[in-house]
């Protein structure tokens, strides 16, 4: 209750009467620090993108590799590929600048996309685990068919989107104007999202 009351009071206050603490104002990280982080991230991103792309490409091009298990692995590679394509860039932009640079749309999409890809990958791991269980422990039981596999792949993405939806709905882009600084940030709804987490 106190958290919601505090955020309500904060939204009503006129911060333009006060200075933002001068020692806490910075616009972006130093060029050296940004270069170090980019040089660390980029090789990992490129290597991961290449590996996941090749996995999907080989399974798509080779008919013999299109087994139910391999399709699930390809789906996991797609989720990992999208994670590597989108999430590190958002992370670096947030890390490099003091103010939130992604705007209203970025605020809604940032946490949502990360969580969709994460949940989808985890659910795919669960499906692979089930498939391996039936192959090794229960060889006489019904194994996954291609049709069932495609349904499961669709379900993993649908579940990922539905489970991550609160992060798109209950995040808000805000601007707070101080006398000497214009603060931009992305804030989670403190009434709803703690229950979600």
UniProtKB/TrEMBL annotation:
Pfam families membership: 7tm_1 (PF00001)
Annotated membrane topology: Multi-pass membrane protein
GO CC annotations on file: membrane
Family annotation (InterPro entries): GPCR_Rhodpsn, GPCR_Rhodpsn_7TM
SUPFAM superfamilies, alphabetized: Family A G protein-coupled receptor-like (SSF81321)
Domain G-protein coupled receptors family 1 profile residue range list: 51-197
Predominant cellular place of this UniProt entry's protein: membrane
Entry keyword set: G-protein coupled receptor, Membrane, Receptor, Transducer, Transmembrane, Transmembrane helix
Subcellular location: Membrane
Gene3D superfamilies: Rhodopsin 7-helix transmembrane proteins (1.20.1070.10)
TM regions (residue ranges): 38-60, 72-91, 112-130, 150-170
MF (Gene Ontology): G protein-coupled receptor activity
UniProt similarity note: Belongs to the G-protein coupled receptor 1 family.
PANTHER family, per database record: G-PROTEIN COUPLED RECEPTORS FAMILY 1 PROFILE DOMAIN-CONTAINING PROTEIN, NEUROPEPTIDE Y RECEPTOR
Record protein name field: CG30340
Species, as recorded: Drosophila busckii (Fruit fly)
């Amino acid at each position: 209750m106190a958290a919601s009351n505090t955020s309500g009071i904060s939204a009503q206050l006129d911060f333009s009467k006060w200075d933002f603490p001068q020692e806490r104002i910075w616009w972006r990280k130093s060029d050296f620090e940004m270069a170090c982080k980019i040089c660390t991230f980029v090789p990992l991103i490129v290597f991961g993108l290449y590996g996941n792309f090749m996995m999907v490409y080989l399974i798509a091009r080779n008919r013999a590799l299109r087994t139910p298990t391999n399709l699930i692995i390809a789906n996991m590679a797609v989720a990992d590929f999208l994670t590597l394509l989108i999430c590190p860039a958002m992370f670096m932009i947030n890390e490099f600048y003091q103010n939130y640079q992604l705007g209203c749309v970025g605020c809604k999409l940032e946490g949502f996309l990360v969580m969709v890809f994460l949940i989808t990958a985890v659910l795919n791991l669960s499906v692979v685990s089930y498939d391996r269980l039936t192959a090794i422990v229960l060889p006489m039981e019904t194994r996954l068919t291609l049709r069932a596999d495609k349904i499961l792949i669709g379900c993993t993405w649908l579940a990922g989107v539905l489970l991550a939806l609160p992060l798109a709905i209950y995040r808000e882009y805000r601007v707070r104007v101080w006398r000497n600084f214009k603060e931009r940030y992305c804030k989670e709804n403190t009434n709803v999202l703690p229950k979600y987490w």
